[in-house]
Amino acid sequence: MPETMTPLSEVTPPHLTPLWERQDCHLPNKPDQQTTGLLGCASCSLPCPTPPMETPGLVVHGEAAPFSTALRSLVNNPLYSDVRFVVGQERQEVFAHRCLLACRCNFFQRLLGSEPGPGVPSPVVLSTVPAEAFLAVLEFLYTNSAKLHRHSVLEVLTAAVEYGLEELRELCLQFVMKVLDVELVCEALQVGVAGQACRWSPCGGLGYMASPVSTRPPSFCSQIAVSFGLGPLQERCVAFIEAHSQETLRTRGFLELSAPALLLLLRSDKLCVDEAELVLAARSWARVGAAVLERPVAEVAAPVVRELRLALLAPAELSALEEQNRREPLIPFLVPPKT
């Protein structure tokens, strides 16, 4: 007669049997907090079961490259776009996505805060930022990266400052420091002095228009630069120009400097150039400003000429300057009074 087999479901290994159900343990039938734990009980010295602890979740990360590529494909893509911009003097239409811009940038959160009305919403006009720079800003907002170019990095930097994008601003500053040269340094100095607050050239790289006959002192512009995080750029540009003075004075960028930016240079004691050459450079700068603003050369030059150190000129140079000043007034105190 076959033996009676005990079902496996009724067989519990001793190490899985609760202590209070085992015959070799003298615990009460119902365990409590004082008689259970990992250290066991005094009567049997066996470990007592402990309720399982809930472990915290673990954040896992997928591949970043496919995610960034997918978001980059949405830059200026009308697919699912719910906001349009008209940017730059060329009035280029740019498509974007409201929720992404608002969550990434406080500037756009305020700009796009109101719900669009029924029908096709009107485009948002941003005429002061060039289209190429604005697209670089969008690329950064969508992917946290951007492709920078030497010819447009200062425009991207100015936009980053205006929109309060500190990380993009720092990336632009690092790029400018690497590519700084004689042709770029004056434009970079202009941005470092005060961003667009002191820009005056109608044909320079940034495209912002202000007056070279600015009433803002250099200290005011320096405070703006510091508050915008551009102080290191200003210092680096001045140091570069001090080391490459003659080459810099011959560039178009020098002729397009604002008065506060030029004053910073004229007040430097480390320019590697004779004072006579500096006077000629200041005259050329004033002529360009006079042509742009349709004002007399002496009026345009007034904020900066008092920083010229005429006492350093040789007697022959000073006589030549006085003669030229009669033909084309530049320095007011060298113009003889009218009789």
TrEMBL record:
CDD domains: BTB_POZ_BTBD19
Domain BTB: 81-150
Superkingdom in the source lineage: Eukaryota
SUPFAM superfamilies: POZ domain
Protein name: BTB/POZ domain-containing protein 19 isoform X4
Gene: BTBD19
